[in-house]
Specification:
Elements (H helix, E strand, L loop, with lengths): L9 E6 L3 E6 L5 H7 L5 E9 L3 E8 L3 E6 L6 H4 L20 E6 L4 E6 L5 H10 L1 E9 L4 E7 L3 E5 L11 H11 L8 H23 L7 H30 L12 H16 L2 H11 L3
Antiparallel strand pairs: 1-4, 2-5, 2-8, 3-4, 3-7, 6-9, 7-10, 8-9
Helix pairs in contact: 1-5, 4-5, 4-6, 5-6
């Protein structure tokens, strides 16, 4: 289903004193990551277990990610998570730094997908994905080959393959538009982050237009009305971000207009007018001749 997104599947064997790290490569731009966040980040299927010592699985992920086996036990996973300082990444309640470890069980032939959490700003998702998502695998029941998987759910969420009904829900374009509108943007961010937010909105609006234009979709009237309404709201938010971005690039003082003269220039003009009124006529004539363009 996602063969066009994922890289070639690779088989990994994880011992009980090891963990798996899936991290975004450092040379990947945040702009390239925007469309990737709406798709599954990785897919893992349990294929084998060797007693209580190790478990094997097949992993496929998007090509932007690096996969690495770390010499770290599952018990150390909780201790390793605080190394990711989330306090300086959180604004307006976008993310809760005290997210607990997510734990679930899988057996042979079963798997799960990792998705980026809906509603988290792309800049936060990018920073956290660069630090990596660490997963631990441990055999809970040798007789039934039951594997326990744990990971930090601060940026990702897992969905089992048999319960992954996201393709059967409302259109992806509608879900992304609602997620963006529900997010609180910080309009005092740096111009780089504002540009990323503007690009994200432009991409979602383009996807909405393509979805509505394709005849094969046969969009329901209610869905089409919702998409048009959300597209209008996205346009308003995009215009406000563009205005903020323009002001951050062209104005240093928000109390004055972009084409308004500074206070120092106004004071100099006022003084010059006073000197012109008080100076003798011959002095004014001499000054005019000196300032004439030759």
């Amino acid at each position: 289903m996602y063969n066009h997104l994922f890289s070639q599947p690779v088989k990994y064997n994880i011992n009980k004193d090891q963990t798996l790290s899936i991290a975004l490569a450092d040379d990947v731009s945040d702009f390239i990551l925007l469309p990737a966040l709406s798709q599954p980040l990785a897919e893992i299927i349990i294929c084998e277990s060797e007693g209580a010592e190790s478990a094997s699985f097949i992993l496929t992920c998007q090509p932007f990610f690096n996969v690495e086996v770390l010499p770290q036990s599952a018990d150390d996973l909780v201790c390793a998570v605080p190394n990711t300082d989330l306090s300086n990444l959180i604004t307006d309640g976008d993310l809760d730094p005290s997210q607990p470890l997510e734990e679930f069980n899988r057996t042979l032939g079963q798997g799960f997908r990792l998705y980026a959490r809906v509603g988290v700003a792309p800049r936060i998702s990018a920073k956290l994905l660069r630090k990596g998502v660490v997963l631990s695998f441990s055999v809970e029941d040798i007789q039934h080959n039951l594997i326990s998987i744990r990971y930090q759910q601060s940026v990702c969420e897992s969905v089992t393959l048999e319960q992954d009904l996201r393709l059967n829900q409302e259109p992806k374009e509608l879900m992304m538009a609602k997620a963006i509108l529900a997010r609180n943007f910080d309009y005092e961010e740096s111009p780089e982050n504002l540009a990323i937010n503007i690009s994200e909105i432009e991409q979602v609006r383009a996807d909405i237009n393509v979805y509505l234009a394709e005849e094969r979709n046969k969009v329901h009237a209610i869905i089409a009305a919702q998409l048009l309404k959300l597209d209008n709201l996205l346009n308003h938010k995009q215009q406000w971000l563009l205005r903020t971005y323009s002001q951050s690039q062209q104005r240093t003082n928000y109390a004055t207009a972009a084409n308004e003269l500074s206070k120092d220039v106004e004071d100099l003009q006022r003084k010059l007018e006073c000197f012109t009124l008080l100076a003798p006529a011959d002095v004014s004539l001499m000054v005019d001749k000196l300032t004439e363009d030759t």
